[in-house]
Design a protein that fits this description.
This protein is of the alpha/beta class. The protein has a single domain, classed as Glutaredoxin (3-Layer(aba) Sandwich). The chain is built from 6 helices and 8 strands; from the N terminus they run αβββαβαβαβαββα. The strands form 2 sheets. A 6-stranded mixed β-sheet has the order 1-8-7-4-5-6.
Amino acid sequence: MKKILSVLITFILVLSFSSCVSKEVTTPENFSDFTVYDYNNNKVSLSDKLSEGKPVVFNYWTTWCPYCLEEMPDFEEVYKEYGDKVSFMMIDVNGGGNDTIPEAKEYIEEMGYSFPVYFDTDLSATYAYGVGSFPTTGVIDAEGNLYYCQAGMLTKDRLITMIDDILK
């Protein structure tokens, strides 16, 4: 019961934000920074990734989200194709009673994915973009401007289009 209440409160709080509710940004917005943990439990911020001088694609996902799992093979393929030009942040949301880090790591390892996985243990990354549903994907240019933020599953073609647009 306590876990259900925690999850419910988390979703209510998340839904109260509206930064990333399926939109194609017509005027670039400055990015909202956040900090997550990498696979080795090191803190990594979005601004750290942007300091590498490449655009960033970030994707919020969970292991219990069927649409998240369905789009993961496409993200893996696009990562293999664009990983040298774009930083990827595949962010498992595991704060607030969602996934656990061991569950997420087990899934990633079983599937053999090579894209970088990060963990949002306190929901700060989730709140930064007002994520209210999973999956949610955002694209930020190398200067830190948010160009796309879309809730819902992406097709491989849509993901490639978003990346190609930002690389022009």
